[in-house]
Predict the 3D structure of the following.
Amino acid sequence: MKKQVKILIYGILIISLIACGFVGIQRIQVESDYKEVEITVKYSDILRIAEEEEKTVEEVLAYYKELGVTNLLAKELTVASVDSDYSSYKSLGKITLVDGYILKFKYPDVEEIRPETRYIVTDDPEIKDNIINSYALKGIELEYYSNNEGYFIDLGDHSPALTTVGVGFSVDELNVAAKMGYGISLQLRSWDEPSDESVKALMEQIESIDNVETIYFADAKINMANSTSFQEALMNYQLGFIEFTSNRQQGFSTLAKRTSNLGKDYKVVRLHTIEDPLLATMGTKEIVERYDLALKERNNRVFLFKLANSENLKHDIVTFDENITEFIKVAHKVGYTTTSHVENYNLPSIPIYLAILVGLAAIMVFILFVDSLGFTKLGYVLGAVGFLGYVGLLKLNVNIASSLMALFGSIMFPSYAFVKVIDERGKSIKDSIIALLKICAISFGGVLTIIGCLSRTNFAIGISVFSGVKAATVAPIALVIAYLIFNKHRFDYKYYKGLLDRKISYGNLLVLGLIAVVLYVYVTRSGNSGSTSNLERAFRQLLDSTLGVRPRTKEILISYPILMVLLHYGYKEKYIPMVILAVIGPVSLVNTYAHIHTPIMISVIRSAYGIIFGI
């Protein structure tokens, strides 16, 4: 490559990385200003506590308001529920379910009663009307009969709807809480084939409740997501993204995008809570530590505290209070304030010219990579094709284009860094440390590319997901190995044939098996997936509590130490297994920043710890 061309490429590379840094600085500013949290409890838990302690609901609400709770989450009522969770008419004691044959035995002269069906029985005409009307709006027509003792609603073939079809909210009770200063969050239930009339009826009830801040969804599929009237009505509310749940809710991303003013103002807040089965097994210290982690490292700003479902409700209430109190102390200590309304989280938009600019760095380093193999002209051609394809794809689909360029950068930078620095000659300890830092510095170009391409609100709040993490963990390893072998043997077909014909010893098989296991664990554990052992969880917690931010275990215990050894003694082809493990370090450094919901400064601290303790 000519000197002038190389200078031009380095110039474009630097300008592109500066542009990525500019995007990153803007994002850091937004992240540092995002310092409010909502402390939320379930309204059904308030009812449970009131009954257990023989207090009025208002007294319990006043107590938790004083404790620091800012919001109530009310799940849309059903007629019945699987558990006694105070979110159904049956669990609230407002209706009973009776088999038809029992009613027939009690009222033998009522011809309309059918022994083979079930009945909803209530003496409250408002509840009767609400059930009949709610079901009718959702396409379920029910008949009822009445006498002096109450109303008998014939379920017919609709018994499954008892626990799934919503019948609205306890409006008067929630308005009492709203007057006490609580923000109200509502969790809606979906229904089949929503009509404009049914959507209008639901939204009219929501509008009758004061201080409604956020709308959550209870089902895996949000059937009303494509309803234009529903989308328009939701423009006045925030959407609640339940961490680890809403990303799987079909229709949530549609609603988030359609209510975002063309992506300029996403009205989404992230909620963190703990699953019910796990909650009963955890103590206050562990719960608060988990919530603290979700606060600092994943941009969650709504925290839902729940009563555990153990057999000792009194103990559950005491623990519940402690969890809330201790977390508020932790949040206040690190500079957060509590509020009943967290502001929308929105990153500055990236104009098209800046989007093009931040993608150039990865293309430039690709050209340098190919040039180092001696295929300079091929690098130019492929680089030009890649650039034109990227610009065209930006016009068609910004998210796909940004994700692909982020993936490309996360592959090329650590790959180029490794092959540029690795040498067959050994180095002193000092020079080995300098070489490792050089690999990390070059790899950081991939970090900046990810930041520049993916620092968009839809990625940060979880509406869009960077799906290239798995590929970005494996591709650099394969690329580095291929580069090192080809760079030495070029087109020596006899070598490759001999390699394929070579007999493999049991020792080699054992080494390959161990590497395969390591790579399997490495890949399956990337991208917030996979499980951890109790020992590893304890080790991670030790690092978290000691350092504040936990470095990547694979960096400090495996990859960087092996990379130091490889740099110190020099690369030999027989050390290929060590190369595989060594490449994981810079790849992990880059992929740390692929979690866009994690604040950049947290990732920077994590990377720094990884390098320091890895060396």
User: Anything to note?
Assistant: The mean pLDDT is 91.
